Structure to design on (278 residues):
């Protein structure tokens, strides 16, 4: 039999549920508790996904369950950061990449808005200095 | 003389400074005053660009002066909204588009973070309900 005679059929292989460690389910419950805490006390939580005992199938399963919301934030500074709102508002999937595009860190943030997006007072003071410089440059 | 004999030379035409209405310069000063107010009193300002006497050259001039910062936010809901941080932190260029991609509205927002990005309490309550539904669905 020649190589070209062997029939090749591409099949979609769903992630086998058997490979789930069980930790992703536990984490889903923890995210719900954190969101309840945010609603009750205004307390934000950050969960470091790469520091937890989660395998690749767990991460895919979790990401699929949480879904994708309307807001997507990208931040360019020494590699791209993406902050994707999930379909559960108040829960964000945050990833930081190195300049080559590799994932350096991944977090779940439970917050109304990730802190990284907010311009802080020092930043705004620099922004004002820049504006004044632009205005002076016109004269 | 035939049509093909007429020499055609493509030239880059910079936006003529003479077409600037002068209002963009005034607006740049107003933006600086608003940013000072935000730093002093925490007061946010929204400027409706399409409601102001600015022509297309003014808008291009203003956008070029303000520049592009690190953070870009996109929001998908009945057309895309883009919220681009300018190079002057605390100043955002916000545009809402219709589903066909046309610009419906354009604003300068002077704020640490545009309100549209923030998950509000009702949204987070819905997010929590969705999480509880996901968790119940696992059992």
């Amino acid at each position: 039999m020649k190589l070209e005679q062997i029939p090749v059929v591409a099949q979609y292989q769903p992630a086998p549920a058997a490979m789930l460690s069980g930790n992703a389910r536990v984490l889903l419950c923890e995210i719900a508790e954190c969101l309840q805490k945010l609603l009750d006390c205004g307390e934000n939580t950050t969960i470091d996904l790469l520091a937890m005992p989660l395998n690749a199938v767990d991460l895919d399963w979790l990401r699929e369950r949480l879904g994708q919301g309307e807001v997507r934030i990208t931040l360019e500074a020494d590699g791209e950061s993406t902050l994707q709102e999930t379909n559960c508002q108040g829960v964000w999937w945050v990833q930081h990449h190195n300049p080559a595009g590799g994932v350096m860190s991944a977090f779940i943030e439970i917050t109304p808005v990730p802190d990284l997006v907010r311009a802080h007072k020092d930043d705004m003071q620099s922004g004002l200095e820049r504006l004044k410089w632009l205005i002076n440059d016109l004269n």
Remarks:
- Chain A is about 35% helix and 20% strand.
- Helices of chain A lie at 23-41, 56-66, 121-138.
- The interface with chain B takes residues 25, 28-29, 31-32, 35-36, 38-39, 65, 70-77, 85-91, 112-113, 117-121, 123-128, 130-132, 134-135, 138 of chain A (CB under 8 Å).
- Chain A has one domain: 19-138.
